[in-house]
Amino acid sequence: MKMAVPNLVIRGKQVVLPHETAAASIHISGDKITTIADYESFPPGCELVEADEQSIVMPGLVDSHIHVNEPGRTEWEGFETATRAAAAGGITTIIDMPLNSIPPTTTLAGFEEKLTAAKNKCLVDVGFWGGVVPGNTSELSGLLKAGVVGFKCFLIHSGVDEFPNVTEEDLRIALPELTRLGAILIVHAEVPGPISRTGIPACPPLAPDNASGRNRNVCPTKYEAFLASRPRAAENEAVELMINLAREFCTRVHIVHHSSADALPMLRAAKAAGLKITAETCPHYLTLAAEDIPDSATEFKCCPPIRERENSEQLWAALADGTLDMIVSDHSPCPPEMKLRERGDFLAAWGGISSLQLRLPIIWTAAQRRGHSINDLSRWLCAAPAQLVGLQNRKGQLAASYDADLVIWNPKEQFIVEGQRLHHRHKLTPYEGKKVVGVVEKTFLRGRKIYDDGEFRGEPHGLLLRGTDLRSVII
Q1: Which of 231, 280, 308, 313 has its CA 20 to 30 A from that of 111?
Q2: Is 319 helix (H, G, I), strand (E, B) or coil?
Q3: DSSP labels for 254-313?
Q4: C-alpha–C-alpha distance, residues 416 and 404, integer Å
Q5: CA–CA gap between residue 247 and residue 243 (Å, rounded)
Q6: Cα→Cα distances 384→115, 282, 343, 400, Å
Q7: DSSP secondary-structure letter at 230?
Q8: pLDDT tens per residue across span 441-467
Q9: Residue 9, φ and ψ in degrees, nearest 5
Q10: How do residues 313-331 score in pLDDT, each as one tens digit?
Q11: What are the CA-CA distances from residue 190 to residues 162, 324, 354 (Å)?
């Protein structure tokens, strides 16, 4: 078979390949990588893009945990703004969560509305999670056939009434069907019991200062009050439950946005026993610490909460030994007024952190201080999230036959985070003013340059990934 003649070569002295970082040239024909060749290999007559000597050429990042919120809550975030932020952050594939949009992606009709809303708006490729809620087991097969990557559930109130949480009894109905379908279940792993036992009631966003049920002995502007209201036990018990159910039903289970270091031994033992269980964590759990959060700084609120510094270091160790598989953003935006910044009420403010565009520099800044390599970074931010959603033969690596998704970035250049320079719809961020290292220079989606030194290139041509492109496999 004759090798396709490349129309584009991207080369650099530091190209992140599956097993090493080395000088190489990436030959691209159309939207695919045709070969990885020596640095000097450059067929005549094709376009050449040369990375600066100190720049890194890496696979386009994959972020499998994004709340886009369109349709229904597009004023929180939408496909156009979210995918612009992704492109500026070197991300070429995002997977949208099934909740916070109206309708949620819990029925085939809801999925079709989501696809219609996303059409012709996306700068990067976009896939979609479906949802497991009480009573929708009959919808799961149709959603999977239509192309969702898998299914998400909450074990505690999700924050929005149209996406109710499931109980163990609900899961015992849904899990046999998920196992039959070969589908993955991703889980917001907090159970309500330990939270209710704290006696610290949460209030809805925008509730008045004198909201009923307020504990007068708790100061809602103190971060420690919120941290105490979401104890580690809520995560620990939820992870134990999901490990037991994964064992019983042979279902593939993934724990999202994991924060409690206490549960890591359970996860480690479950993986060693061969259970089909994986887990992720997020930049905020790895780089922010409860001890440093000022009074009233509700931009730091998320669920599960940001915990103590010693907890964070244990999460880093779990990434190093493979107990935690990946780092995703859990980009969960809302209008700034829902953060109640003027009141500073941690208990009533919306929980969620916007960090989609910043995942690469935030993690690289912290990872290099701990001796982690560029290849570690690529595994956590590119390859592992791609494998989670069944794209491991198409995304997340620089190799022949893969999509020509690449990011060129400078690992030594510093910048100060300024919310107004981010491309998310809303600019409030807990990273405001932080000095980070790692500047995205260029982003390529399937062989086309979509971001170039602060400028977006061309019309949106991101694909809505569906069907057999996204069939999951066991990790």
Answers
A1: 280
A2: helix
A3: EE-S---GGGHHHHHHHHHTT-SEEEEE-HHHHH--GGGPPTT-GGG--SSPP--HHHHH
A4: 30
A5: 6
A6: 25, 14, 40, 18
A7: S
A8: 999 999 999 999 999 998 999 999 985
A9: -125, 130
A10: 999 999 999 999 999 999 9
A11: 19, 17, 21
